[in-house]
Amino acid sequence: MSSYNFNDPTQRWLITGNRLRSSNNTLLKIDASGSSSNIRFSKNDASLCVIGTNVDACSNSVLNSCALSVGSSDFSNNTNINTFGAYYSFGETTTQLAFGSTATRSSIGRPGYIRYNTDDNGFEFWNVLTSSWATVTTPTPTFTSISPNYVPEDSSFNYTVTGTNFASGAIIQFISVSGGITYSTAGTTFISTTQLETRNTLTMSNDGGGVTGAGTSGYRISITNPTGTNFTSAGAVLTFNQGPIWITAVNTNLGTGIANTSYTYATTPFSDLSAVDTGAVIHNPVKFFLDPSGSTIAGATSVTLDPSGRLIGTTPNVASSTTYTFNAYPLDASGVLGPVRQFAFTVGPIALTRVSGPTLPTPIYVNASNTVVGSPVVGGFTIYSFTDTSSPYVVTINSTVTSNVQYLIIAGGGGGGPGFQAGGGGAGGVLLSPAASLTTSTNYTITVGAGGAGGNNSGSLPSAVKGSNGSNSSLIGGVLSLTATGGGGGGSYNNGQTPLCDGLTGGSGGGAGAFGPSAQAGGNGGAGTPSQGNAGGGCTFSPSPSAYQAPYCGGGGGGYGGAGATGGGANLIGDGGIGITSTITGTSTNYAGGGGGGSYQLGPSVSRVANRSGTTAPSSAQSGTGGEYGGGYGALGTPSYYSATDGQANTGAGGGGGALSIPSFPPPPANDPGAAGGSGIVIIRFPSF
Questions:
Q1: For position 274, what pLDDT does the model report?
Q2: Who is most buried in 67, 425, 431, 483, counting CB within 10 A?
Q3: Whole-structure pTM value
């Protein structure tokens, strides 16, 4: 038999039974009787090709030239013979072309190639002139909605447009209803065949807001696919709404906070965001929100934006100054958004980091008016008060602001002397600075001095014991080496032995004790350290025994603000010297008062006795001057005995001098100790910002 040429129009097919006979008598058998229910093509009973579930390769050159392609199932399951094209399925005759997305199409085509693009929702063919795919047809786009549906003044934000038949490369434009002006957008992004995104321009907002007034009646929308098919709305799809306008400039840094600090609405150090509503109708109040696409602040998720425009929350625990950015938008009371803008804020490290020693004290914060507040604020100060005397603190300075640092360094106060009429302890030395400079990333050692012990004669008369000096306080590091000297101990009652009656030198000197009745005299007050304190008071009596009179008082310890008073007879009361009042912590506080001298007994005309208040001794109306600055009260002997009191802790005040209560004279040996001096303090005050 000769071969059948499928392309020869002179040859025809005749159907005989299950055989096809061509006009040149060539037989082509279609055999559907196989056990696998395949359709089999054969020539003169010789198998050529099988179509169905298991497809054999065609062995005949005539059928090979057809490039036969079959599906994966037999005809009963709607096998698609793509090469032959037409097939019968569910009562319809259709043709299925190759289909897929733009990304899956072949980069090398052939003449006659055609396919359906699922991205563009249209057909495309291989253009041999341009060696590229070209669109056959693109359906006309339709419009459903746009969100948001208004144009705010001074704005440029994204719109989402929904509809159908959108193609990649589609362009959106807006047309003012009243002015007929066409506004090109800042770009159109193809999301899908049913969704586009675009961004309006400031020109469009300005024209609607009164520059030309062209958009006051709203805007129509025009959507054009790359092939030119277009949809243009008949009426406005956007209205012009004068919404909030920013007052705070874009990219403004709102200020600096301290690391790992919780800020409230009342204590935040950051400046507020500000915007105003405009237009014929004002819709206040304007509120502020983080951009929904970034509803938390990257790297500072515990900080948020209060609707008032204030940043609140807990700042990150940073080791160095770090700036964070965030996006926010204003919203007026009618629900109109303003434009999204970027802003920033900075977080600095805490002023100090502990290297060794005791735990760092909790800082205190004051504002620019020196009022204590809960958190650092702009123009305020961060204050550390060091009080632990057990061991030195070693700290590193982290603050980015190291100038204009203030300090107050006070040493421990001296202890009071023992005896009938003993001297009060001197206050610890004081160092202060209104504006010093510390070095960042430098270690500083801070030592807080303990108060000196009160003297204890253990009942021995005359006594060879005096009050002990207080310990030094210091701030040392970098170029600074600052040491405040401990207060001097008070002298003792010594029955004529002059050197033992003298007060000790110190930051402020200790007060002197009395010689005794036979000598009718007393010792000298201890000297103070220049610029740190004052001398202690002496002890003196009239030359004749008959002039030896109540209150028989020792000298007062010196204070930072004045020397101790001279004690003795004829109402010479040994008040401790006054100290210093400081507001470095934001609270007015007294420091460094001298201890009062001990008094043997009350005289008939005495209204008060050295540094003892009326609430403690009924016959005494007032406290001594040193007591107002933390100094201890001197002991009171007769008629009722009151022990000397310690200097107040963390003030560097001196302790009170001792005295003895006796029923008659001369007294028996007795234990009549002085009181301890108060511990010192070191205060450092850093600018918060």
A1: 95
A2: 425
A3: 0.59
